[in-house]
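Working notes for the structural subgroup meeting. M.R. asked for a predicted model of this chain before we commit to crystallization trials. I am recording the input and output together here so anyone reviewing the notebook later can reproduce the run.

Input as submitted:
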Amino acid sequence: MRNQWKFLFREAFRNLGSDRFLSITSVMTLGICGSVLSFLLLGLSLMSAIDAKYSREAAPLTAYILPAFERGADLRNFEQKIEASGDFDSITFVSKTEALEAFRRDFGEEMTRYLDVNPLPHSYLLYPSGTPLTAARLKALREKLLRFKEVEEVSGNFTQLQWLDRWRVPLQTGSLLLLCFVAGALALIVHNAIKLSLYARRSLVENMKYCGASGFFILAPFALEAVLLGLGGGLLGTLALLGQIQLGKLILPSLPQWIPELRLGFYLVAGTVAIALLSSVQTVYAFLRGKLE
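Returned structure, recorded in token form:
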């Protein structure tokens, strides 16, 4: 068994070394594809981070309580109903005193200096559960809150969410389509490299097949070759990803805080290797079935 694995690894590296120009060209081409993949992954990650950040900032709905329901028992009853609805992650009570202090801090004391009573109502900051948060869902929650007898009015930052909604789907859909296209190109490059290796060792493969070698034993050297090619391309793509992040820091110094570098690098290498492996498996089995001319 040990000798068999030695043979498989030796054949895989022999395949790469027999035509160094083809191997280097394949790795460089895969690296270019990996660089494009890294750019798309970086864009998707940045869009997701921006979406999460600004959706959260726009998320709080402010529910203003009617004066008739300002007693402690009425407020507790309202809080219990909000918690029972399951629509919100957190609830923050803002008393009328806190609201007046915030008003004076933002607009100055001149407008409220001669007031005998505090005209501002108690209110609640309500943070909806679930992501991504859309303007349509926020409006639906507003309508639901307005049906509570304790609520006088509900305000929210609908304009910001409408802007996010307008750009979220087109950008994410376009990036995912490009991601699939580049993944297909990567699979095609590996397919051609493995196909050339198969034809270069056609007699050896056919002899192994007629001697009763299993499909896995024939497949393994070519699959390992594809994994090495995919690993090389994925590592080049990861270097391109790190380079893009460093360049992005010149424009946006806080960019690394928004981008999970290690996770994206892992996704890139793992995805490239997985695509290369699947492509090699399909190519070898098609060859063994006689479907490759």
